Amino acid sequence: MSTSAKEIQVQIFGTKKNADTRKAQRFFAERRIKVHFVDLGERAAAIGELKRFAQKFGVEKLIDRESRRFADLGLRTALYGEERWLNILADEPLLLQQPLVRLQQKLTIGLAETTWKEWLA
Q: Which end of the chain is more exposed for a tag (fewer CB within 10 A), N or C?
């Protein structure tokens, strides 16, 4: 990447308690990449931001079906369309796979160190 490290800023969506989110933050911090952290425990991701990830990976990949929140909300048998899921994920950010990482137009869901290294190479 021709952009210098000082100009690069990644956006990480996750929660402070999530181990993979913490690993993502550490990964970029160790490489002196500026991180804009959006704590999903305090603030939900904007629906437009979620749509960006959904367009690339599909809504299904955004949903953490193993999360306690997913079970608590009784969604195991839920059959919703993409728009409905996006609205649910916007309202219930703890249902999201973590972390969601964005560098300009590049996106990842979950821990993706190999991909992040490629971005920074």
A: C
The residues, ordered by sequence, that sit 6+ positions from 36 with a Cβ below 8 Å of its Cβ are 9, 10, 11, 12
Give how far Cα 6 sits from Cα of 12, 14, 107, Å.
17, 23, 20
pLDDT in tens, 9-48: 999 999 999 999 999 999 999 999 999 999 999 999 999 9
The tokens for 108 are 């990842």
pLDDT tens string 86-112:
999 999 999 999 999 999 999 999 999
Structure-block tokens of residue 28: 């970029």
Q: How far is CA 25 from CA 10, 32, 37, 79, 95, in A?
A: 9, 11, 8, 34, 20
Nearest to 22 by CA among 10, 43, 37, 5: 37
Q: Which domains does the chain have, with CATH numbers?
A: 5-120 (3.40.30.10)
C-alpha dist (Å) from residue 111 to 2, 7, 81, 98, 115? 24, 23, 26, 8, 9
